[in-house]
Specification:
Chain lengths: 209, 210, 203
C-alpha cells in the first residue's frame, strides 16, 4: 500500500520544497490561525490568564499542554514515518543563566500585568486598554534592555548548553520524554479539574452533545 | 463562552482525525525495494579482508566446463561485449544489474548455491557493482582480477597466468619514497596537513519567540 | 467525569505508548542501492594524475587530497598536502569533518585505484558529495609524473606538451634533475577535434 509515499520530506523550506520567499506568507497565515485560536480559547481576558497563578482557572495550562502533547506525538510519529527530518528542525539554544533570569522576570510580569507577550496582542485586537498599556510597557522594557545590553552581555551569553533537547540532557530518548510528558499532562488535567470543581462555584459543565 | 462549547463535537473530531492520520501513515509505511544488508561498518571490514576477488587462472575450470555452478556476467556495455567477451558470459550492463528481474534471479541463484562472477574491462570497473551486491547481501558474488584486458592477453593459456603477476592490482608497485625522494626533504615532513577541527555549523531557520 | 474525556485521555495514552515501541530510526540518510549503482556507472569520478599534479602545483584552493592507505604507508610517503583517512576509519568523526564539504573537492587515492574506489563507494553510500578518485593511484603517479615516459617522435604535439608538463611536475615534486634528452621535438600537428573524454591518459 503506497498511498502516502510522497517523496517530500519536511521541514519544507530548508529542504527546498517551498521557495524561501514564502517564509513570511506562511508566518502570516500561521499567525492569523494562532491569534484566532488564542482568542477562541479565551486568552484575551486577563482573568483567565492569571487564573493559573491564583488557582481558580486552569484553561491556560490545559490549552498549552494539549498543544505541546499533540505536537510532540505528531512530530515523533512523522519523524518515524519519514515525513519530517527532526535533525533539521530548529532547536533553541539553551543559555541557562539568562533564561532562568528571564523567566523569573516574565513570570512576575505575567502575574502583575495579566498578559503574556503574545496574548497581549490578542487583547489589543479586541480593544482592551490595559493590553495597550501592557504592550507599551513591553516595548519600553525591550528598549531599556537593548540600551543596557553591553553591560549584561556576559550574563546574557552565559551557561550556553547549545541546542540540546531534554532527551539529550537526561540521556533518554525523545520518545520516553514524550511519553512521560503525556502522563504528566493527563495527571495535571485531572488534578486541575478537581481543583476547579472545588473552587469555582458557578461552573457550567461542559456538555458533549 | 468558549468556541468549543458552541460546537461540542469539534474537540472529539479533531482528536480522532489526528489519530487516524498517524495510523494511516504507519500503515502505508513501505520500505524501499532494495535494502542494505551490510552496514557501513561491515562493508569496511569486507573491503579490508580482500577475499571477494577471483584470480584469472581460477576461471579456467569454469570455462572448460569442469565447474558448472558459476555464472559469469559481463558488466560492460553491449558494444564492448560484442567486440569480445569471455565465452559463456552474459551481458548485463551495470545500470541494469539492479532491475527487478535481475535481483529475483540473483536471489534464486544464491539460494541454489550458484556463484556469480562479475568482470569488466578492468578490476576497477567491476569493483563498484561487486561492492553493491555484497552490501545487498549477495555473498556469492566475486569480481575478476585483471578484468577482460588481462584475460584477452592470456586467454589461450590461462592456467599459466598463475606464475604471472600482471593482474595484481591494489598493491604498490614501487617503493615510493625511494623513487620520489631524490634529493628532497619537502616530500614528507612539512607537507602533512594538520587538521584544525572546526565543526561547521549547520544552517538553521530563523527562530521565534512567544 | 464525562466519558468522552476519558476516551480522549485513553487515546492520548495509547498514542504516546505507541511511541515508546517505535524501533530506533537510523538517522543517517544513506543513498539507496539503485542510485549508488547509477553513480558507480558514471566515470566522472575519476581524475587523472596530471590533473592532480596541476592542482597541487597551482595551489588550487578548492581541493583536498585524502590518502586512504594505512598510517604507516602514509608516513612513509604521501602526496604533498594530503590528509590521511585509512579506510577503516572512514566513518569516524574526524573523517566526517574532512569529507563533509560542499564546496571543496576531495580526491581519494591509494596505492592502486582499487582501495580508493572502494572507499569512494562507501563514502558515496553515506551521502558525501564532491568525492573523486585519482585514477591509477600512486602507481600511476610514479609512472606518469615522477618518471614520465618520453613519447616517440611521431607522437602528436599534445602528447609532447603533456610530456613537457610531466617533466616539469617531476622536477617540482622531487627537486632532482631528470636525465632526459632535451632536443626540441617537433611533433606531428594533427588537427583532429579533441573529443571531450573523461579521465583519459595515465597508465
Amino acid at each position: 500500500m503506497d498511498l502516502i509515499n510522497l517523496n517530500i520530506m519536511g521541514p519544507l523550506i530548508p529542504l527546498g520544497h517551498i521557495a524561501t520567499g514564502w517564509d513570511f506568507v506562511i508566518a502570516l497565515l500561521i499567525g492569523i490561525a494562532f491569534g484566532f485560536i488564542l482568542e477562541a480559547s479565551g486568552f484575551s481576558s486577563s482573568r483567565n490568564i492569571t487564573g493559573v497563578f491564583y488557582g481558580y482557572n486552569f484553561v491556560v495550562l490545559r490549552v498549552f499542554m494539549t498543544a505541546v502533547v499533540v505536537a510532540m506525538i505528531g512530530l515523533l510519529y512523522f519523524n518515524y514515518m519519514g515525513w519530517i527530518d527532526l535533525n533539521l528542525v530548529f532547536v533553541l539554544p539553551t543559555y541557562l543563566n539568562s533564561m532562568i533570569a528571564g523567566s523569573l522576570i516574565m513570570g512576575l510580569g505575567f502575574v502583575l500585568g495579566g498578559f503574556c507577550p503574545g496574548t497581549s496582542y490578542t487583547a489589543i485586537a479586541i480593544g482592551k486598554i490595559d493590553a495597550i498599556v501592557f504592550t507599551a510597557g513591553l516595548f519600553l522594557g525591550i528598549f531599556i534592555f537593548s540600551e543596557a545590553f553591553p553591560l549584561i552581555e556576559g550574563f546574557y551569553n552565559g551557561g550556553n548548553l547549545g541546542s540540546i533537547t531534554m532527551g539529550e540532557m537526561f540521556g533518554v530518548s525523545n520518545q520516553i520524554v514524550a511519553f512521560s510528558f503525556v502522563i504528566i499532562a493527563l495527571i495535571a488535567f485531572y488534578v486541575t479539574w478537581l481543583i476547579e470543581k472545588k473552587v469555582r462555584r458557578k461552573i457550567t459543565p461542559y456538555k458533549f452533545e | 463562552m468558549h468556541i468549543h462549547e458552541l460546537n461540542p463535537k469539534k474537540t472529539l473530531i479533531a482528536f480522532v482525525i489526528f489519530a487516524i492520520v498517524i495510523i494511516a501513515g504507519l500503515i502505508t509505511l513501505s520500505g524501499p525495494r532494495l535494502k542494505y544488508k551490510l552496514s557501513a561498518e561491515k562493508t569496511i571490514e569486507l573491503v579490508a579482508w580482500d577475499d571477494g576477488y577471483v584470480f584469472p587462472y581460477e576461471i579456467e575450470d569454469v570455462l572448460v566446463g569442469a565447474i558448472d555452478t558459476v555464472i559469469i556476467i559481463d558488466i560492460r556495455n553491449t558494444f564492448d561485449f560484442s567486440r569480445g567477451h569471455i565465452p559463456g558470459a552474459e551481458n548485463i550492463s551495470a545500470v541494469e544489474l539492479l532491475s527487478k528481474e535481475n535481483i529475483k534471479r540473483m536471489t534464486k541463484l544464491q539460494k541454489d548455491g550458484y556463484k556469480v562472477l562479475l568482470y569488466g574491462e578492468t578490476l576497477l570497473q567491476a569493483n563498484g557493482p561487486w561492492m553493491v551486491f555484497r552490501q545487498l547481501g549477495f555473498d556469492n558474488v566475486s569480481a575478476l582480477m585483471g578484468g577482460y584486458q588481462y584475460y584477452e592477453i592470456w586467454k589461450d593459456n590461462l592456467a599459466d597466468s598463475y606464475a604471472d603477476d600482471g593482474y595484481l592490482e591494489g598493491a604498490a608497485d614501487f617503493d615510493y619514497a625511494d623513487v620520489a625522494a631524490n634529493a628532497n626533504v619537502t616530500e614528507d615532513d612539512e607537507q602533512k596537513q594538520s587538521l584544525n577541527v572546526t565543526r561547521r555549523k549547520k544552517s538553521t531557520v530563523v527562530e521565534g519567540g512567544c | 467525569m464525562n466519558k468522552n474525556y476519558i476516551f480522549l485521555a485513553a487515546l492520548l495514552i495509547i498514542l504516546a505508548g505507541g511511541l515508546l515501541f517505535l524501533p530506533e530510526k537510523n538517522n543517517q540518510v544513506q543513498e539507496n542501492p539503485e542510485n549508488l549503482m547509477w553513480d558507480i556507472a558514471q566515470p566522472t569520478r575519476y581524475v587523472t594524475t596530471d590533473q592532480v599534479a596541476k592542482m597541487i602545483i597551482e595551489k588550487d584552493p578548492l581541493f583536498q587530497l585524502v590518502d586512504v592507505r594505512q598510517n604507516y604507508d602514509y608516513e612513509y610517503f604521501s602526496l604533498p598536502g594530503a590528509y590521511n583517512v585509512p579506510i577503516d576509519s572512514l566513518l569516524t568523526e574526524i573523517s566526517d569533518i574532512i569529507l563533509d564539504t560542499d564546496d571543496i573537492n576531495t580526491i581519494l587515492y591509494s596505492d592502486d585505484d582499487i582501495k580508493a574506489d572502494q572507499a569512494w563507494v562507501i563514502a558515496k553510500r553515506m551521502g558525501y558529495n564532491n568525492i573523486y578518485v585519482m585514477k591509477g593511484g600512486l602507481n600511476c603517479w610514479i609512472r606518469t609524473i615522477i618518471q614520465p615516459e618520453a613519447p616517440p617522435e611521431t607522437a602528436p604535439i599534445t602528447d609532447l606538451e603533456l610530456y613537457e608538463f610531466r617533466k616539469g611536475a617531476s622536477l617540482f615534486f622531487t627537486g632532482a634533475a631528470i636525465s632526459v634528452d632535451t632536443d626540441n621535438k617537433q611533433g606531428l600537428k594533427i588537427t583532429r577535434k579533441k573529443k571531450e573524454t573523461v579521465a583519459e591518459g595515465g597508465c
